Amino acid sequence: ALERVLLAALDASGEDLKSAASFALGGVAAGNRARFLPTILAKMDEMPTHRYSLLCSLGEVIRAGEPEDDDDDDGGGDGDASSAAKTAQLSDAELDQILDVLFKNAGSDEEGVRNVTAECLGRLAARRPTRLLPELTSRLDPALHPDASTRVTAVTAVKHLARAVAKRKDAVLSALVAPCLASCVVGPNAALSDEDVGVRRVLRAAAQTLSAAAHADATLVTPSLPDALPALIAKTEILKDLVRVVDLGPFKHTVDDGLDLRKAAFECLDTLLDACLHPTKNAGAMTRLGAAAGYLDALTSGLGDQYDVKMVAHAVLVKLCRGDAKRDARERLAALCEPMKKTLTAKLKSDA
Fold first, then answer.
1. Do the beta carbons of residue 237 and residue 200 sit within 8 Å?
2. pTM listed for this prediction
3. What is the C-alpha to C-alpha distance for residues 343 and 317, in angstroms, rounded to an integer?
């Protein structure tokens, strides 16, 4: 009866009720996997319109087995917590069934489905790294997985994995995950070198993953910086072949398909500057990596880019001038001031 009520609630017209039903279904499944987990997995195919909600329920089952934050541990109830964690551990058979469903949905046309799938995969990888890390790494290879959506999901899963690892503060787990994160940057199948030029979703996801990992735990990213920085800086370039003009009758609208990637690349460079290259956190890193020249090259174009990119570029320039790159910035002053002069002297439209 409970199962029927919760599944029926997924058809509710209100999103709040759907979300509550999904959360409740996941909660009861976490408490009684033998009874409810097979139902959730089976309904993925039987109720395709509710796949997102069912994946959210599955996410609750996966989340139930994760360790609590250290900050929440008051020193009491350790025995109960340990017992609950053991109870929540997925069996190999359950893991196989869950992974089968998740990998089937990794290439979904729905972005929401892919995002939840990636989060589930990332959380599972933090719990079963030896099993999941090779799976995620292999899905970065365009030869094995030509579908760009699947590769985006794999890269996004690494982002959630990095966050989970940083939360646990487990040195052994971090050592296992760092190479997987590096695979997003280094090597022939690196996501930052993906050939998905048309929509550049994989590249954008890789930049966002690197940024999130650096923000969560800089030590996961530091070994990859010599390769990551040049790759990111290359993605800040404005590519004319990605700019097109759409004819809207009496009007023409310019569409820049590379804008989102450039913005993600600059945001990642900004995060790396704070987390990995800041003089108070990693003295001399900017000089050792020779990063100043690359940053300033990116800023030369970024300061004259579209508004979304320009705002991040200005913030990066301020940080560079306050850090180890102030001398390099002075030497490039003329090139940096030119795009800023155009911004200051630009005539705004009457409806701006």
1. no
2. 0.84
3. 15
